[in-house]
Design brief:
By secondary structure, the chain is α/β, with parallel strands linked by helices. The protein has helices at residues 10-18, 24-38, 53-68, 111-118, 161-168, 185-191, 225-235, 279-294, 310-325, 342-354, 357-370, 375-398, 422-426, 433-438, 466-480; strands spanning 48-50, 80-84, 122-127, 174-179, 194-197, 217-222, 265-269, 298-302, 403-407, 442-450, 453-460. The protein has 15 helices and eleven strands. Strands 1-3-2-4-6-5-10-11-9-7-8 form an eleven-stranded mixed beta sheet, sandwiched between helices. Helix 9 (310-325) crosses helix 12 (375-398). The longest helix is centred in the C-terminal third of the chain and has 24 residues, at 375-398. The radius of gyration is 21 Å and the shape is globular. The two termini are 24 Å apart. Bound molecules: glutamine.
Length: 486
C-alpha cells in the first residue's frame, strides 16, 4: 500500500508539512517504503543508484524541527524528490550510470539540487540513467536497466529513466532529470507523467555533468503538470555559477493553470505527423488538439521544413561535444583508475574498461567529425543545419503561433532488449532533439494509451515561453485527465 501523502499534489503536501499537519519524516519513510516495495536490484525496477535512508531522514527531521520552531520552510517543505545521477550531490555519489565514476563524490552541489533542498525538499535518492545520458532506454547504464513501472517488461525511456520511474511508481511527486536530446520528455511520455525541458539558459547547469554543452539542460518531471511546474518554479532563475544561465525574471508558472485557451494559436507541424506515424499515436495527438480547440484555441497547420535533418545534425553535434567533455575522465582526476604500461597505458585501460559501448561509440564518432579534414564536411555542416532548424521555429512563432503540439515519441515504450540497433534507438528522439538544437522550451504531457502503454503529447513554445507552454499543458491535462487517463 502506498501512503496517501505520496499521492497528494506536491503543493498540497508541502502546505501540510509547512503547517505542521504532516511530518516530513513520516513522508520520507513512506517514500523509502514505497521504493522498497517496488524493488531494488535487477529483479525490481532498479530505479536508484544511490541513497542513504538515515541521511534523508535527518534532512526530514531538520525540516520538522524548523516547522515546530515556527519557521517558514518553503514551497517544497517535506516533499520527497529524486535526482538523476548526473547532477552533483555532496552527500550521495554521482556516477552518471558509468563504471568510470563508480563511488565518485562531488565536493560541490548542483544549483538545481541546492534550490530544491533550500525550498524544503528531501532528496531520497540518485536515479539510474543511460551512461553519461547517452541513450533512450536506460539500458546503457553500467548498473543494469530500469524497468517501466507501468509495464515491467518495457523500458522506462531514457536517459532520465530512473527519475521518470521514481515518479510513475509513486515514490516521489517530483524528480530532476537532464536533457540533451529528449531525455526528460521521452521517458516522461513512456511512463505516463509530465516532463519539462526549459529554455536553454532558464535553469542553471552548475553541477550537471556535461555531455553536449550547447544542448544540455536540467529538466524536471512531475506526476502532474502542476507538480512539474512547481519544481520548475523552484529551480529556474539566474545563477552566476553558470555562464550560460540568463538573468531573465521568473514568472509565476503555476498561475498558468488558469490560462484561457481563447485566442491561443496552436501550430500542428506537419513534419511531426509523417505518413509512417503509428495511426494510434496520430489519433491521440489529434484528440489532444481537438480538446484544445474545444477549449477555445485556434489550431493551424504549420511547417518546420528542416525537421528531417535534426537527427543527423544532433548525432554530429552531440558526440562532437561529448568527445571533448568526456576527455576529463582519464583515470587521473576522477573515479576509476586501472593500471597499464606508463601514463598512456593507464589512460587506455581506464577509458576502455571504464566506458561502456555506447559512450565509446560516441567518443569515436565525435573525435572523427572534429578531426582535420572532416570538420568542415560534418561539424560545420551540422551547425549550419542547426541554424536552419532554429530559424524554422522562429518563423512559425514569428507568424503568430503561440505553441506547437506534436507527438513526444513515435511509439510507446519498447521491450527491454527490443531495440539493439543504435540507429533505431536514435530515432526514438526524432520529435524531441529539435527543441534542444533550437534551445526552445518543450514538455511532454500524458495523452492516453496505445496497447495499454502511456504515450505523450509534446508542447513546444518560443524561448522563455514556459508560461504559455504550461498554459497549454494545464488545459490538456484538464481535458485528458491526469496521466491522460480520462
Ligand atoms: N537519446 C539521446 C542521446 O542519446 C538524448 C539523450 C539526452 O537527452 N540526454 O543522445
Amino acid at each position: 500500500m502506498n501512503d496517501e501523502a505520496l499521492q497528494l499534489p506536491a503543493a498540497t503536501l508541502a502546505r501540510r508539512v509547512g503547517a505542521g499537519d504532516r511530518s516530513s519524516l513520516a513522508t520520507t519513510d513512506a517514500a523509502f517504503a514505497r521504493s522498497q516495495a517496488v524493488g531494488a536490484g535487477p529483479d525490481g525496477l532498479n530505479i536508484f543508484l544511490g541513497h542513504d535512508r538515515e541521511w534523508s531522514r535527518a534532512e526530514a527531521e531538520a525540516i520538522d524541527a524548523r516547522v515546530v520552531r515556527g519557521e517558514s520552510v518553503g514551497p517544497l517543505a517535506g516533499v520527497p524528490v529524486a535526482v538523476k545521477d548526473n547532477l552533483a550531490t555532496v552527500h550521495l555519489p554521482t556516477t552518471c550510470g558509468s563504471r568510470i565514476l563508480e563511488g565518485y563524490r562531488s565536493p560541490f552541489e548542483a544549483t538545481a539540487v541546492r534550490r530544491l533542498r533550500e525550498a524544503g525538499a528531501v532528496v531520497v535518492g540518485k536515479t539510474n540513467m543511460d551512461e553519461f545520458a547517452m541513450g533512450s532506454s536506460t539500458e546503457s547504464s553500467a548498473y543494469g536497466p530500469t524497468r517501466n513501472p507501468r509495464a515491467p517488461d518495457r523500458v522506462p525511456g531514457g536517459s532520465s529513466g530512473g527519475s521518470a520511474a521514481a515518479v510513475a511508481a509513486g515514490i516521489v511527486p517530483i524528480a530532476l532529470g537532464s536533457e540533451t536530446g529528449g531525455s526528460v520528455r521521452q521517458p516522461a511520455a513512456f511512463c505516463g507523467i509530465t516532463g519539462i525541458k526549459p529554455t536553454y539558459g532558464r535553469v542553471s547547469r552548475y553541477g550537471l555533468v556535461a555531455y553536449g554543452s550547447s544542448l544540455d539542460h536540467v529538466g524536471v518531471m512531475g506526476r502532474t503538470v502542476d507538480d512539474a511546474a512547481l519544481g520548475l518554479q523552484v529551480i529556474a532563475g539566474y545563477d552566476g555559477r553558470d555562464a550560460t544561465c540568463l538573468d531573465v525574471p521568473v514568472p509565476d508558472y503555476r498561475s498558468a493553470a488558469s490560462s484561457s485557451m481563447a485566442g491561443v494559436v496552436i501550430g500542428r507541424p506537419r513534419e511531426y505527423f509523417p505518413a509512417s506515424l503509428d495511426p494510434r499515436v496520430r489519433e491521440a495527438c489529434d484528440a489532444a488538439l481537438d480538446a484544445l480547440r474545444a477549449a477555445g484555441a485556434e489550431v493551424r497547420d504549420v511547417s518546420l521544413p528542416h525537421t528531417a535533418l535534426a537527427i543527423p545534425a544532433y548525432y554530429i553535434v552531440a558526440p562532437a561535444e561529448a568527445s571533448s567533455n568526456l576527455a576529463r575522465f582519464d583515470g587521473a582526476r576522477y573515479g576509476l583508475r586501472l593500471s597499464g604500461e606508463g601514463l598512456r597505458g593507464m589512460y587506455e585501460s581506464t577509458r576502455s574498461r571504464g566506458f561502456g559501448a555506447e559512450v565509446t561509440r560516441r567518443i569515436l564518432l565525435g573525435t572523427y567529425v572534429l578531426s582535420a579534414g572532416y570538420y568542415d564536411a560534418y561539424y560545420r555542416k551540422a551547425m549550419e543545419v542547426r541554424r536552419l532548424i532554429t530559424n524554422d521555429f522562429a518563423a512559425v512563432f514569428g507568424a503568430g503561433v503561440h505553441a506547437l503540439v506534436t507527438p513526444t515519441t513515435p511509439t510507446p515504450a519498447f521491450r527491454l532488449g527490443e531495440v539493439s540497433d543504435p540507429y533505431e534507438m536514435y530515432l526514438s528522439d526524432v520529435f524531441t532533439v529539435t527543441a534542444n538544437l533550437a534551445g526552445v522550451p518543450a514538455m511532454s504531457v500524458p495523452a492516453g494509451f496505445v496497447d495499454a502503454l502511456p504515450i505523450g503529447v509534446q508542447v513546444i513554445a518560443p524561448h522563455f515561453g514556459e508560461h504559455a507552454m504550461l498554459g497549454v499543458a494545464y488545459a490538456l491535462e484538464r481535458a485528458l485527465g491526469v496521466g491522460g487517463a480520462r
